[in-house]
Automatic annotation (TrEMBL):
This is Carbohydrate ABC transporter membrane protein 1, CUT1 family. Keywords: Cell membrane, Membrane, Transmembrane, Transmembrane helix, Transport. GO terms for cellular component: plasma membrane. InterPro entries: ABC_transporter_permease, MetI-like, MetI-like_sf. PANTHER family: ABC TRANSPORTER PERMEASE PROTEIN, INNER MEMBRANE ABC TRANSPORTER PERMEASE PROTEIN YCJO. Residues 42-255 form the ABC transmembrane type-1 domain. It is a multi-pass membrane protein. It comes from Paraoerskovia marina. One of its GO terms (biological process) is transmembrane transport. It is found in: Cell membrane. It comes from the Bacteria.
Amino acid sequence: MGIGYTGYVSTLDWNGIDDNATSVGFENYIAIYHDPVFWTALKHVVIFAIGSILIQAFLGLIMAVLLSGPGLKMRPIYKVIMFLPVVLAPSAVATAFRGILSPDGSLNSFINIFGFNVDIGWLADPSIALYAIIGINIWQWTGFSFILYQAALSQVDQNVIDAASIDGAGFFKTLWYVVVPQLKGTHATLALTGVIGSLKTFDVVFLTTGGGPGRSTEFLGTYIYEQVIDLYHAGYSAALAMVLLVLALALTTVQLRAYKFGEE
């Protein structure tokens, strides 16, 4: 019902408040195609998704392997510490990192311990703000990758690992050629959730940079918010929302088919 209504509104020239709505057909969609801000936001989503998914998966797998080793003390405590950022409210995370990444924040203070004299505004510099947002996302969601890999590693056949060790494979070769291929279901799950999460990313970006400076961290979610709340372009924002939905469904379908093809 909600999707149908959004689709209907996307065909209107309407401010979302009064009754003076005019039907414009597909003009909003044509405007999106010619909108440079839309393409900039989409590019940021792609960069954000690639950086976040790959690094989170790598870090999550490494931590899962290390915490799965025999003889490790306080294993439950380490697991809680790894997963804790996942359950934190985005508002709390954004508030904390606004302070950490400010020119006089903790990150610059830590770097200056090593003799550097930096006062970088990590969220205020258009050339690095997007990567700062990626770093925040990695910090918050690596624990999710870790938990999934931890569960998947418990299902890996230990006999296969033992056979690889007997054949002379070292730790890294065993990990890359034996363990990683058996986790492709987890890889696919993380890629799918990561892509969908990147498309709908809004809260942390809005609460840290608001899409700035100079649209350097503009995402589809923040652009939709701007159009409907700040500019009262309800019809155009609804069209953007429908495009976002289509992109999410298309990418989900492609990933699921690619995963099924890899299993054959």
